[in-house]
Amino acid sequence: MGKNEKPQIVIRDPIQEAINRINKAIWAIVSILVLGFIMMLLMVAGLVLDAWRFKSNSYEDMIETMKGQEKIINDNQTKQVELKNFLENIQKDLQNWTSVKK
Q: Are residue 69 and residue 40 in the same domain, yes or no?
């Protein structure tokens, strides 16, 4: 054997094997954390995109349409109350007219 040649016999080092397993586990954990962080960034980007979309013109148009429908409903309710009062007055007038006629 010369001075530059390595020995052919390999002795297994249990400590080095344990260190290699721990390194693999740490790399796996770090990889999972990095993927989780990227997924969280994508989810936040989705929320920001949704918030921007809700500020769009179609959303504003929908709000205006709903306000118009709400105004129509309120007007109809007011007219319903007026008609009810009008019918009650007619009924009272009819009762008075029939009582006077007798």
A: no
